Amino acid sequence: MSQSDCAAVILAAGQSTRMKSQLSKVLHPLCGRPIIRYITDLVALIKARPVIVVVGYQADKIQRELKDVAGVEFVYQKEQLGTAHAVSQTRGILADFSGTVLILNGDTPLLTPDELSGLIQFHQKMKADCTLLSSDVPNPFGYGRIVRGEGGEVLGIVEEKDASSEQKKITEINSGIYCFNARSLYAALSKINNHNAKGEYYLTDSVAILRQEGKSVQALKAADYRTVLGINTRMDLAEASRIIRQRIAAQLMESGVTLIDPDTTYIDYGIQVGQDTVIWPCCLIEGRSSIGRSCQIGPFCRIVDVVLEDEVRVEGGCFLRGGTIAAGSTVSIASQACQEKGIERFFYQA
Question: Of 314, 312, 272, 265, which is closest to residue 289 (Cα–Cα)?
Fold first, then answer.
């Protein structure tokens, strides 16, 4: 896909009240990096241009976090008046753009490159005005429901607060991830009103508007509903962390690393681990750490910002922070022990 085919809009302006946090939801760490970094990585992989991030709450912090991401432009949503209002802030940048506009939320870090590229390809193949990514979920509470006609066609999306008791039984939800024809998008945005329970301008209303005008609206179901779920609460954050840890563990084991118990091994995103290294249960490897080949890391170790060269042995119970451990070394509690309330602890700091 060439860069001119697709522009990306990432919505990251909300205050994230359900997280009960002073920090913007999209900046919360997830396996060693902010949530929004997973989204910017995705759009980089599909070579979308331009990439527009809509900011509002803690805009300065989000801009600082993404200052090194190539090709990103920011627009400011002064008042959070809904998703349609947020997207409308991009009109100036995309005024002359006539391709596909991909709209993503900044809190969907489980979305995969295959899922996203599949959505774009489907949208462009169908020559649709709007294609939304949907999924059947076990518990649809809080999500907009996809309303279909007797023939299965998409009629519209109804938000949780506006849904009838019958509509709330629908399990197919709107992920908040869309592809739009740019001109169809901005024409529909100008017709959206805020006559709803929240008094907001919903981007979901664009689906019904396009349908009423005889435009083509498609929906593509995600194969795995977990990939489209957003993070709204601390429980969601914990579940996303579990899934990403599983992905990290699977990638490492496929590359030749032995994890004795992947479920109790916590390895941050992006950490390199060499072939034939063995990591025992209940270990945490964090930050800018990297692990060489044929290392042995015993149980109950925490390793933060440490480089282990090849064939290093770290005995169980060690806490290492900072520096480099030379190839062939053995590190243990006994090697540098200190007494603290009668408990031996090892702390390595270069």
Answer: 272
